Amino acid sequence: MALVFHGVQAIFVLGVGICVLVSAFRESAGQGFMTMCIPCYVFYFVYGVCDSPLIKVLYSIAILTRLAALALPLEINQ
Fold first, then answer.
1. Which of 32, 36, 68, 78 is most enclosed, with most CB atoms within 10 A?
2. How far apart (Å, rounded) are the C-alpha atoms in residues 3 and 9?
3. pLDDT confidence of 61, banded at 50, 70, 90?
4. What burial letters (b/e) apply to 42-71, b meaning 16+ CB within 10 Å?
């Protein structure tokens, strides 16, 4: 089950990341470029610049699931 959680979580984080980038490029090309290239700028964009509450909630869930995935041991028993 841990392997399934890691897979679904990775797909979810990828989808949320794409949504954040699309939203940033809709604001302006500069916002999109900085969101794409500067790792910490994405936090500022999501929580400071972006007006969409859906993106804020999805990004927060992505952060929490990523922390849960880091805490969950991934052991493959054969």
1. 32
2. 10
3. very high
4. beebbeeebeeeebeebbeebeebeeebee
pLDDT for 76? 63
Distance of CA 58 to the CA centre of its chain: 8
Residue 31, Cβ neighbours under 10 Å: how many? 19
> Rounded mean pLDDT of 21-34?
94
Query: Residue with structure tokens 């964009």?
Result: 45
Report the pLDDT value the prediction gives residue 42, as an integer from 0 to 100.
94
Phi and psi (nearest 5°) for 50? -65, 135
